[in-house]
C-alpha cells in the first residue's frame, strides 16, 4: 500500500487483503478497480466500492471518470480512501493521479511523474490518456 496523502492510498490486490494496513492508515473506504476480490476479504468496518474496469485499451473514459468521481466524493466526505487494482501498477495509479491533479489544481502528467519518483509504476498508455482527459474536463 502506497500512501500519497494522509487520506489517499493505492496498491495491489495483496495489500487489499492485508487488514493490518487498513488500521495502520485508518482506511474508511476501499475502491476496487479490478475484477478480483482479495483474500481475506475487505475488513467489515471498511466501505468497499466496486468500480471494476479493464486495464489497457479497452478502458473507457466513462469508466475512468466514474472511478475518479467516487474517490473524489469519498474524500470530500472525510474518508481515507484506498484505491486498488490487481497489480497496483496502472489503474489505481492513474485514478489517484487524476484525483490529486483535480484536487490540487495540477497537471495530470506532473502528478503521475511525482508518483513515479517514489514508486515503480508503469501505467497503460490508454489509462494515461483517460486520466489526462478527465483532469482537463475539470
Automatic annotation (TrEMBL):
Residue intervals of the Tyrosine specific protein phosphatases domain: 62-117
Gene Ontology annotations for the cellular component aspect, listed alphabetically: cytoplasm
InterPro entries: Dual-sp_phosphatase_cat-dom, Prot-tyrosine_phosphatase-like, Tyr_Pase_dom
SUPFAM superfamilies: (Phosphotyrosine protein) phosphatases II
Gene Ontology MF terms: JUN kinase phosphatase activity
UniProt protein name: Dual specificity protein phosphatase family protein
Amino acid at each position: 500500500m502506497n500512501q500519497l496523502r494522509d487520506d489517499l492510498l493505492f496498491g495491489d490486490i495483496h495489500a487489499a487483503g492485508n487488514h493490518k494496513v487498513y488500521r495502520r492508515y485508518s482506511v474508511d473506504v476501499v475502491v476496487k478497480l479490478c475484477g478480483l476480490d482479495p483474500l481475506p476479504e475487505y475488513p467489515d468496518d471498511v466501505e468497499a466500492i466496486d468500480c471494476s474496469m479493464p486495464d489497457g485499451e479497452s478502458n473507457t473514459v466513462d469508466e475512468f471518470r466514474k472511478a475518479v468521481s467516487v474517490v473524489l466524493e469519498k474524500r470530500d466526505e472525510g474518508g481515507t480512501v484506498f484505491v486498488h487494482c490487481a497489480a497496483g501498477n496502472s489503474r489505481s495509479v492513474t485514478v489517484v493521479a487524476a484525483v490529486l491533479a483535480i484536487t490540487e489544481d495540477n497537471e495530470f502528467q506532473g502528478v503521475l511523474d511525482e508518483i513515479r519518483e517514489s514508486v515503480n509504476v508503469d501505467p497503460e498508455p490508454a489509462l494515461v490518456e483517460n486520466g489526462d482527459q478527465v483532469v482537463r474536463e475539470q
